[in-house]
């Protein structure tokens, strides 16, 4: 069965592909089937057929043939046209794709529509613009030599996608890879493969040459692993946990693949006495509670200077209680859906319990929400030991720890006391302090007076165990090209 008719909770019916998308068409998978569950009800939605190792081989062969064939013959301007066409079709289908992601992942439909799909559309448009502006340099060394560089595509790119922003993460990876002239094999997360499978239809309609985009749903331990270790794959771009990133790095070492890893975080948010407290409360709230806390850059550790600590903690809890409407992702006004899966639900509750046992104080929330689905109350801890697991480990749920500091040095030391280094935020009205602290924070992204506001033109990625390489902006072009140096002898004779 290549597809099935699915009716979404908002009443929209459509044909959902459930098989592999290889070489421009859907075909049956030969790997293990796996279940897709609606996290709002914990009920089975459908079963998707996973790609086996042999299916991965087939996709790599199709991608390689496309890379060596038609795709390398077209001009950069034509590549840009294809990306623009993909953007137009995403724009046309944005309501449907947003609803698919809301159903599959539990994120509010309105958020999927206004944030994820808008960003996905813009990312394709943005890289359409880059496609014909990727070139090397001429390098002046001596009158007898002409040296220049070419920025060439890497080839077959495996792209392993997480479940927290299913379609948007696909866009972040596919668009720059194609703009640079690569071909891709997308491996969506097993929790949320539906919008990626639907993307195959968009690729068909846009008329991309067969094999340029392939989509392989499947388990990470089978399909993801086979892709990461495949000798015919030139690059792996991954977003997910640091542990899986480590394992991908090992698999990718077989042929020294180029890798981009966008892994976990435990990002700090620092609030100084002089901050605009009202703004700090709002940004800090979004920084941890958006997407039910399932964001790699979530600012899950809040450090507040002692002069405003009590005021901030009270205002933060009041605001959280007032604005966080938890519930059915398809209901208007809901900003906080369920956790994506039973595994994530259990994991977050386990951390809440561990925090309680370690003696931290719960100011708000602290338990699951009774009823069907994987809903958890937004949870605010204080008075946690800096070594407690809720302070040190990535929870990936709506759980924040608020702690106190006295001096700027103490705040920076606490903020940097983590193996992660994805993002950090600082709130102050003193311009010099904001920039000074931003430079001292060991993180790939620092926000001054905001949190979590990424943009497709600005590089995204982490320091330390939060990853390798950068996505987005012109930096993604480095991640998807390699440099060839050409030496032209203009007269030196031997
Ligand atoms: P994960 O890292 O295991 O999964 C992410 C992707 O990697 C999925 O597509 C998965 O199928 C694939 N994968 C898993 N094992 C693989 C392997 N050995 N080789 C190749 N691909 C593999 O994440 P998870 O288990 O779904 O979630 C666990 C934790 O990961 C979360 O609690 C959270 O802390 C973190 N996470 C982070 C992000 C992020 O945006 N940084 C996203 C999702 C999950």
From TrEMBL:
Active site: 262
Catalysed reaction, written as an equation: an aldehyde + NAD(+) + H2O = a carboxylate + NADH + 2 H(+)
Top-level taxon in the UniProt lineage: Eukaryota
Pfam families cross-referenced by the UniProt entry: Aldedh
Enzyme Commission (EC) number: 1.2.1.3
Bilayer-spanning residue ranges: none
An example molecular function term from Gene Ontology annotations: aldehyde dehydrogenase (NAD+) activity
Keyword annotations: Oxidoreductase
Domain Aldehyde dehydrogenase: 29-486
A Gene Ontology biological process term: carboxylic acid biosynthetic process
Family in the record: Belongs to the aldehyde dehydrogenase family.
Name this polypeptide is given: aldehyde dehydrogenase (NAD(+))
């Amino acid at each position: 069965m290549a597809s099935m008719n699915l009716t979404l909770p908002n009443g929209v019916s459509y044909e959902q592909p459930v098989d592999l998308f290889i070489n421009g068409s859907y075909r049956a998978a030969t790997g293990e089937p796996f279940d897709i569950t609606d996290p709002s009800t914990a009920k089975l939605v459908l079963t998707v057929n996973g790609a086996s190792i042999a299916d991965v081989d087939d996709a790599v062969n199709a991608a390689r043939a496309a890379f060596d064939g038609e795709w390398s013959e077209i001009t950069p301007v034509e590549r840009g046209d294809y990306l623009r066409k993909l953007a137009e079709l995403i724009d046309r289908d944005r309501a449907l794709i947003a609803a698919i992601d809301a159903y599959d992942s539990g994120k509010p439909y309105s958020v999927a529509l206004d944030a994820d799909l808008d960003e996905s559309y813009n990312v394709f448009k943005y890289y359409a613009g880059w496609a014909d502006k990727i070139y090397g340099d001429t390098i002046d060394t001596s009158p007898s030599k002409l040296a220049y560089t070419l920025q060439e595509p890497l080839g077959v790119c495996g792209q392993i996608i997480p479940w927290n922003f299913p379609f948007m993460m696909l866009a972040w990876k596919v668009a720059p890879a194609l703009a640079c002239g690569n071909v891709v094999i997308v491996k969506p997360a097993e929790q949320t493969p539906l919008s990626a499978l639907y993307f195959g239809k968009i690729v068909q309609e846009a008329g991309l040459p067969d094999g340029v985009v392939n989509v392989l749903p499947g388990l990470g331990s089978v399909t993801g692993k086979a892709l990461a270790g495949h000798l015919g794959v030139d690059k792996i771009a991954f977003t997910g946990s640091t542990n899986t990133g480590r394992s991908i790095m090992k698999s990718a070492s077989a042929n020294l693949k180029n890798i981009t890893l966008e892994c976990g975080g435990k990002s700090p948010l620092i609030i100084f006495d002089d901050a605009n407290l009202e703004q700090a409360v709002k940004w800090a709230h979004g920084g941890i509670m958006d997407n039910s806390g399932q964001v790699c850059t979530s600012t899950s550790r809040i450090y507040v200077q002692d002069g405003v600590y009590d005021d901030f903690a009270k205002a933060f809890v009041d605001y959280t209680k007032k604005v966080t409407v938890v519930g059915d992702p398809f209901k208007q006004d809901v900003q906080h859906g369920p956790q994506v899966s039973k595994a994530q639900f259990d994991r977050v509750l386990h951390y809440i319990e561990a925090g309680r046992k370690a003696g931290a104080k719960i100011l708000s929330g602290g338990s699951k929400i009774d009823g069907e689905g994987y809903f958890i109350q937004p949870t605010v801890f204080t008075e946690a030991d800096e070594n407690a697991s809720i302070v040190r480990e990535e929870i990936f749920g709506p759980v924040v720890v608020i702690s106190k500091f006295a001096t700027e040095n103490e705040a920076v030391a606490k903020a940097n006391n983590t193996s992660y280094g994805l993002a950090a935020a600082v709130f102050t009205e003193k311009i010099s302090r904001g920039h000074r602290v931003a430079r001292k924070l060991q993180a790939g992204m620092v926000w001054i007076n905001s949190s979590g506001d990424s943009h497709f033109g600005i590089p995204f990625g982490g320091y330390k165990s939060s990853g390798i390489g950068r996505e987005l902006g012109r930096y993604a072009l480095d991640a998807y090209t390699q440099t060839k140096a050409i030496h032209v002898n203009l007269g030196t004779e031997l």
